[in-house]
């Protein structure tokens, strides 16, 4: 199960990067894939520590659970990961704006860092 979550996270992150490479104008879709990647990667990490993470849906709750129940020390970029969930909350506006890498690039880099962090934690 851990490997499945890790693979899902990897696939979702690749989807987000593909959208960014083609200048796809839908920040909501980019955030959707980044959130899915983040949730899957955090669940893979939690499962590697024997935590019951499958029903936890919130990124913040997953991070809090891992912090409370394990010895994992997340680097500072974890705050960008938490910000991802807050930025992605619907404001009721259906308008699509182009993803601005200059504005949100730190979040993409944080999810990339999370991927490498989890990969090292579960495979190392």
Topology, element by element:
Layout: H1 2-21, H2 27-48, H3 59-69, H4 78-87, H5 101-123
Helix pairs in contact: 1-2, 1-5, 2-3, 2-4, 2-5, 4-5
Structural class assignment: mainly alpha
Distance between the termini: 17 Å
Distinct helical segment count: 5
Write down the overall mean pLDDT.
85
Give an overview of the whole structure.
The protein has 124 residues and is an all-alpha fold. It contains 5 helices and no strands. Helix 2 runs parallel beside helix 3, helix 2 (27-48) crosses helix 4 (78-87) and helix 2 (27-48) packs parallel to helix 5. The longest helix has 23 residues, at 101-123. It is globular, with a radius of gyration of 14 Å. The chain starts with a helix and ends with a helix.
Question: What are the key terms here?
Answer:
globular, single chain, 124 residues
Short characterization:
Helices cover 69% and strands 0% of the residues. It is mainly α and 124 residues long. α2 (27-48) packs parallel to α3 (59-69) and α4 (78-87) crosses α5.
